[in-house]
Amino acid sequence: MMQQSTNNEKKIQENVKVFQLLLAKKWSQNFDSYDFEIIIDELQKIGLDVEGLHEVIETLGQIYYLEDNKKEPFYPRLAFDGEKLEVTISYYTKKFLYTLERENMVEVGKAVQVHDTVINLIRNHNINDVELLAKMALTDVENVKRIKNNLN
Length: 152
What we know:
By secondary structure, the chain is of the alpha+beta class. The chain has helices spanning 2-29, 40-45, 50-60, 91-103, 105-125, 130-137, 141-151, and strands at 35-39, 64-67, 70-73, 77-80, 84-88.
């Protein structure tokens, strides 16, 4: 029971990080904007289903950005209608995304490379064994399972 709870929390934190990185990517494409739209396909591409998105939204409300020894909320305003997610961010959210983007460029590159490698091996080479895929993509089996589940 405790292990399942820990795994669930870990998955939620991974989903939050992936969502924040998607926001950082959207923001980096248009620095002046405070409003973004993310369609469901983009969310599914990064591994978020509707349930996962609701967990992310709930968790984002607990994240703060420290600015001049004052806690400022990271939490963007979100509206999800089932097809698209409308996001409005604040000045502090932008600062957080900027910091996050700089800190995670290498990590994001690796995650994208692993994702693309696994998809390529499945689609173009008909390799479906998760352990073999994990070894070939230099990642863990759970990550491969997640990518494979999102592919279907």
